[in-house]
Amino acid sequence: MYDHNQLEIPDAFAALYLSPGGHRATATRAVVTARYEFCEDLANHLGEYARTQQHQFDLSEAEVLLRCHAGLAGGAAGVNLGEADWVIHRLAEIEGWACPELPAPT
């Protein structure tokens, strides 16, 4: 059946839900779509916060993005580490900022 509300999910996000070889999905389309919508909304909502932090504390764009990443990667935000990375890259894209190298998982 044709889904009239089918959402185009970026390849970079969809890749978060592929097996290590990249050949098998690790979640259903419905789950990936729901996670994508959540992460896209989160990136958009973080924009104002990021700009405020930059100006209020005189931080560089990279410092703001790294602080946001640390907050997301802590687990309380409801995203996994791969999603946290994607959200920060998307936030940087939305704001027109260069994304710094994000810390590797420990």
Given helix and strand content, the structural type is mainly alpha
- Arithmetic mean pLDDT: 93
Count every helix, treating DSSP H or I runs of 4 or more residues as helices. Answer: 4
CA gyration radius, whole angstroms = 15 Å
Distance between the termini: 43 Å
Helix proportion: 55-70%
The shape is globular
Main pleated-sheet profile:
none
* Strand segment count: 0
Strand content: under 5%
Order of helices and strands: HHHH
Give the uncertain stretches in residue-range form: none
What report would you give on this structure?
Helix 2 (29-57) crosses helix 3 (61-73), helix 2 (29-57) packs across helix 4 (81-95) and helix 3 runs antiparallel to helix 4. The chain has a domain at 37-95. It is 58% helix and 0% strand. It is globular, with a radius of gyration of 15 Å. It has helices spanning 11-14, 29-57, 61-73, 81-95. The chain is mainly alpha-helical.
Essential attributes:
106 residues, mainly alpha, globular
In short:
The protein is 58% helix and 0% strand.
Annotate the secondary structure layout.
Layout: H1 11-14, H2 29-57, H3 61-73, H4 81-95
